[in-house]
Amino acid sequence: MVDFHSHILPGMDDGADSLRTSLAMLRESARQSVDILCATPHFSADEDDVVSFLGRREEAFAYLRSVMKKAGGKAFPEIRLGAEVRYFPGLSEAKDIRDLCLEGTPFLLIDPPEGPWPDGMLDEIERCVVTLRCVPVIAHIDRCMRLLHDESLIARTKGRRMLIQANGSFFLHRRSRERALKHLEEGDIHFLGSDCCNLHDRGPNLGYAADVIAEAGLASVLEDLNSKVRRVITET
Ligand SMILES: [Fe+2]
User: Which CATH number fits domain 2-235: 3.30.540.10, 3.20.20.70, 3.20.20.140, 3.20.20.370?
Assistant: First the structure.
């Protein structure tokens, strides 16, 4: 499985707080059948600039990679580097943001604000297709719907040039499970991510989500989604 959204790099953000935690999260992800994991630390243009963010990301990854090698690399998923970019007005004109796409792909994971979504924000995210030559991916749509108490968010992205990522927890919470399965079956979800930050309350969970999906008779839908994602992130 591909985990499209995680906070696995040590000391980059509010995710893994140490190298030890990173390794344990990677082992747990592998145990849950994740073989490609996208490391997507938070990027906020208010607090950081792209060049220094990329430098810190490279440093954190180099450190992690060397320890993974010593610890037996085969026990871990393959890591792809990306970012979770907090939306800001002007995003579509910030050319250097394109460097934050998932490595080797045009996918830009965008973290929408926790407040209401104005149409202007969706218009600007969509404009990134042209101005930044990227494919915007809305991060954890389920979290946005829960925080805003707004079930219409998925519908509002339809027909727009943007894709949707949902978290494993969407399938695990009893209250949202049925809706999550329905959206998956209807093709509304393009990427799945754990959004894991630690080993406790926000740990790797895609294996558990896959169990729920299989129990609902949708294993083949998940398989299709995973092979599509694998293809687009390894072949683009
Ligand atoms: Fe995240």
Answer: 3.20.20.140
CB atoms within 10 A of CB 167: 27
* 176 Cβ neighbours under 8 A, 6+ residues apart: 142, 146, 170
- pTM for the full model? 0.96
pLDDT tens track for 46-103: 999 999 999 999 999 999 999 998 887 678 999 999 999 999 999 999 999 999 999 9
Residue type, 148: L
6: CA distance to ligand 1 center in Å? 6
CA of 195 to the centre of ligand 1 (A): 5
Residues 177 and 69: their CA atoms lie apart, in Å, by: 38
Name the pairing type of β-strands 135-138 and 107-111. parallel
